[in-house]
Amino acid sequence: MIEFHGVEKEFPGRGGGAAVKALDGIDLNIGRGEIFGIIGRSGAGKSTLIRVVNMLERPTSGRVTVAGIDMNALDAAGLRAARRGIGMIFQHFNLLSSRTVYDNVALPLELAGLKRSEIRAKVEPLLDLVGLSDKRDRYPAELSGGQKQRVGIARALSSEPKVLLCDEATSALDPETTTSILRLLADINAKLGLTIVLITHEMAVIKEICHRVAVMEAGRVIEQGDVFDVFTAPRHPTTRSFVSSVVGAELPDTLVERLSAEPLPGGNPVLRITFKGALANTPIISQLTRRFGLDLNILHGRIDHIQGAPFGTLVVEAVGSAEAVQAAITFINVNNLSVEVLGHVPANLRAVG
Ligand SMILES: Nc1ncnc2c1ncn2[C@@H]1O[C@H](COP(=O)(O)OP(=O)(O)OP(=O)(O)O)[C@@H](O)[C@H]1O
């Protein structure tokens, strides 16, 4: 639905400084009907990337196509028409304070020259969809942040776009309101089949609703894939640090302090076993104990859900012979769970974390 081919964007340096390469060779395909998240730290190039989709920023080089249309090649009238098919919502909502909820949602339709009856026929179901029918005559100043964003969403949907761009749409909202807005976006995606592109600096937002994710750093996409895969097996250190902020992959300090890279005389290895999807239901601990005669001392553990599928890690001290531990590791790998030896601890370490 949206394709980026070798997209670059360079801004002239401010105050005579060096030019800034905000986008540095972006190749990305966003499929029809998917919720695609783009995450990165401040300055990574996220806003620039989302703004080249509707040519609010023109790429310095490369090509952006939306539904097969080469956006760079459009003249002013073509671009106006193409933009009607691309809705956008913003962090600070961008509502007109002098207009009521109804009139804010109606604005794009008025500008497109629709009749009052046609406008009403479109705006009323949209207010219903975003749950604001009872607020239609209120002004933005009388609304909460979440309600303002609902108006923004209804307004973006008024021209029946095929694509909705969300520029940090929940960053100004509290966690509970964020969840309700994300649920609304997921609902709209499912009901209308709309393609949603969402930029954020919060991995929790990606985890909540995105199907796929791209991680940006210094104008480049450094990792991309299905959200479940990226969360359960992040490859790039930046991605790992984003992921650990929401799935607790980090070990407690008290355990890290006691871990030794080398085996300790009389000590025991520490294993991290990772469960994914249906495999999270495998009774692995009791199997290892029965089959290999190991005692497993649980040091740390966590189960999370990503896109409705369970994902968990369990950190255990394995007490038993070296051969039994090796056989257990082979058994875990054969069973499609993953296991990693994190290090070694002195015997009799008490559970921490
Ligand atoms: N109009 C501009 N003129 C000059 N430099 C710009 C302009 N817009 C963005 N930049 C620079 O381009 C880089 C990428 O900015 P961009 O806003 O796309 O990042 P971002 O990931 O969205 O960051 P944030 O999360 O802080 O909004 C930054 O170094 C920024 O300073």
Keywords:
353 residues; alpha/beta; Rossmann fold; Alpha-Beta Plaits; six-stranded mixed sheet; elongated; binds adenosine-5'-triphosphate; Cell division ATP-binding protein FtsE; nucleotide-binding; ATP binding
What does it look like?
- By secondary structure, the protein is α/β, with parallel strands linked by helices.
- It has two domains: 2-247, Rossmann fold (3-Layer(aba) Sandwich), CATH 3.40.50.300; 253-345, 2-Layer Sandwich (Alpha-Beta Plaits).
- The protein has helices at residues 46-53, 76-84, 101-111, 116-129, 145-157, 175-192, 203-209, 227-232, 237-247, 253-258, 284-292, 322-334, and strands at 2-11, 20-30, 35-40, 61-66, 69-70, 86-90, 163-167, 195-200, 212-217, 220-226, 268-276, 295-306, 309-319, 338-345.
- It has a six-stranded mixed sheet with strand order 6-7-8-3-9-10, sandwiched between helices. The chain has a four-stranded antiparallel sheet with strand order 2-1-4-5, covered by helices on one side.
- A hairpin with a 2-residue loop joins strand 9 (212-217) and strand 10 (220-226).
- Helix 4 (116-129) crosses helix 5 (145-157).
- The longest helix is centred in the middle third of the chain and has 18 residues, at 175-192.
- The model has no long low-confidence stretch (mean pLDDT 89).
- Adenosine-5'-triphosphate binds at residues 11, 14, 20, 22, 40, 42-48, 201.
- Part of the ABC transporter FtsEX involved in cellular division. Important for assembly or stability of the septal ring.
- InterPro entries: AAA+_ATPase, ABC_transporter-like_ATP-bd, ABC_transporter-like_CS, ACT-like_dom_sf, MetN_ABC, MetN_ABC_transporter-like, NIL_domain, P-loop_NTPase.
- Keywords: Amino-acid transport, ATP-binding, Cell membrane, Membrane, Nucleotide-binding, Translocase, Transport.
- Residues 2-243 form the ABC transporter domain.
